[in-house]
Amino acid sequence: MDRTVIIGTRGSELALWQANFVKDSLAAINITAELKIIKTQGDRILNLSFDKLEGKGFFTKELEEELLAGTIDIAVHSHKDLPTENPPGLIIAAVSEREDPAELLLILKDVVDVRQKLSVKFGGLVGTSSNRRKAQLLAIRPDLEIDELRGNVPTRIGKLRDEKYDAIMLAKAGVTRLGIDLSEFHVEELTATEFIPAPAQGALAIQIRESNTELYEVLQALHHPDVAEELGLERGVLKMFGGGCHLPLGVYCRKDDGKYQVFTSKADAGDQFPDRYFIESDTLDGVAEKIVDRFAKDRKFPAKVFISRDISATSYFRKALEKHKIEIEARSLIRTVPVITKFDSYILKNIDWVFFTSKNAVEYFFKLSPQFPKKVKFGVMGAGSEDMLRRNGHFADFVGESNDTADVAADFAALANGTTILFPGADNPMRSIQQGLSAETKIIDLPVYETVLEEEVEPTGADVVVFTSPSNVEAYFADNLLEPGQKVIAIGKSTGKKFDEMGVKYTLPFSPDEVGLAEAVFGI
Which GO terms describe its molecular function (predicted)? Predict the structure, then answer.
């Protein structure tokens, strides 16, 4: 092009970073551009929450008006801020690469409580203006107080620094782009699969006039069609739900090992418990429709779910099922008993890591009152073990979140190979993690408990049966068979292998925790 391209942008630091990113990307292909700052409704009205602002496009409408008027050539948006339909005459010409769409929970260090999930003290005040974040936060921590938080990223962080909140939640992408130092806070990073982001979070949208075909062709050099495909699914779901920024909806689509994985969280309001759904597919054809159908008001749920472990009255899984009046039959089919009552803490002298493959291992190890002569790191398998470690006053330095222990072993080995690692656990462990470590790694197995199968296990007539370990499968099917029509959910591939041996079809949750279990039941 032989003229300067005018880029319209909001005036916040993050918006200017985004616009300058596009300007620099154009310069790299020999296109000259300059910025024009435009104030939007979302910038002017800071005393109201998003659900009280009228209409949609709080941060985009004014930019689109100038684009239509021809006073700018490009509007650069955070893609998640855009309404699901372009105004007539405008198109999205390109989307950027996607920054990590994870969320960050920034916490004042003097209110951190390791024994609480997410590390915020009991009853803490958390700032966020998003109903989506509010619903998911309260599902995990119903004791928290949520208060409105508006302003650009530095302004929000400043309000936390001034102790107007105990914690605030921000998108990781904005903090990363601005290069903000967060060392003064305790930071909990919540991945996009555990805390589902807004549709299109982390990506930029480059909007132009539909008639400007010359500029469209130029911008294809900046376009990432693989990202656009995934964002198209997320925004398609948002459109089908008829929502905007105020809707408590999270949708995240990614491609993993050749398959599309889509995670959805939706509540009716910010203070209501959200439902979650996970789907994996070879193609995105019809996926949005399947997701919306799962959240239909008239859909039928199983009447009763059996799970082979005790479930507390406040557990996420119980709340997710009771919301839909699903009866829960929770009883463990095994018992665990200690195999040692004390040990010489001298064994900990040269330990670099302690790794727990179950919450039982954590519980029985800390009953021994271990004394650590030096700082050690802790690794755990799954959220249940992480929660138990927190209850004993320690953060996990590594959390294995995959159902496949081989994947967890590989990830852990990348951190811990060549060190000395203590593995407290069962008296006859599977040693899946140990087998993935290098020969120069020193491994110490410490049996702290053993598993005893219950005798004469009663059958269940539940519509869905959930088995939490291979031992529970063995205990149940020693005396019982599946009833016609019963659906099976297995936590972890080792549990699933038991059903493979039996020739029984089962569902494997994406994550081996209570959230993954709730997703699996919701998907049946």
Answer: hydroxymethylbilane synthase activity
